Amino acid sequence: MDLYLSTRHEGDRTVIEVGGEIDVYTAPKLREQLVDLVNQGRYHLVVDMEAVDFLDSTGLGVLVGGLKRVRAHDGSLRLVCTQERILKIFRITGLTKVFPIHQSVEEAISATD
Amino acid sequence: MTGVQAAGSAAAAGHAPEGDGVSLRFAPLPEHVRTARLVAVALARRAGVEEGLLDEVRLAVGEACSRAVGLHRSAAPGEPVLVRFAPPGERFRVEVADLVTGGPVPKQDEGGDGESGLFDPSGVEADMGLAVLRGLVDDLEVETVPAGGVIRMGWPVHQPDYS
């Protein structure tokens, strides 16, 4: 299975829907997408991970990189994830304290810091 | 070397033959890591690792292989990464060996959450890969040997499925 990405704008928020496997092979595609969005001036990103089947540390690294980029512009990067096996990876790396993780895209879009 | 090779024993790697274990050697290319994960899950299932642990096997073998691929790409791109699955036994045992001499991956300052400096994805990922492995796998050894490094992992086995 490959990685698929689709992007839509909701006001000043951009929702990136991610599906498939995020690993050492596919993560560069996600990195490129996040970098492109920031370069386009989109600094409030919501990454919807509900259709992700597999995530490894390479994927985590890309998300951390995205977070650093948007924070440099006072932006935000929120995750949508309810899958226990994916959440577990955020938990064991301590990244649940770094990323706001939401139950739904709607919740992430309406969230404010 | 650009492909994946399966071998019936670990003899090809210069180690003693391990009976009916399985070895996988692959060129250090990111696209082969998924193949290694798929093989690991298939063998774990067959060995009798319980269904609830297969995700852990998949992630752990993937992490170890990604790390080895990263090390080889920077220091030994022509050398294959080797994964050895021990023959059926009391535990499902996997070894992932890299041939990169020079010890463990250099540590980065923090987990990538800092505000300063440029993002270095390779460093963050290499560090996070080990963090994931340490948090995930109870039976884990990370060893540096003169020829490189070996990550050994094991999982309990319940009912083998040889169907």
TrEMBL record, chain A:
Gene3D superfamilies: STAS domain (3.30.750.24)
Family (UniProt): Belongs to the anti-sigma-factor antagonist family.
Protein name in the entry: Anti-sigma factor antagonist
Stored Pfam families: STAS
Record GO terms (molecular function): anti-sigma factor antagonist activity
UniProt domain STAS: residue ranges: 3-112
InterPro entries noted in UniProt: Anti-sigma_ant, STAS_dom, STAS_dom_sf
Keyword Phosphoprotein among UniProt keywords: yes
SUPFAM superfamilies assigned to the protein according to its UniProt record, in alphabetical order: SpoIIaa-like
Domain of life: Bacteria
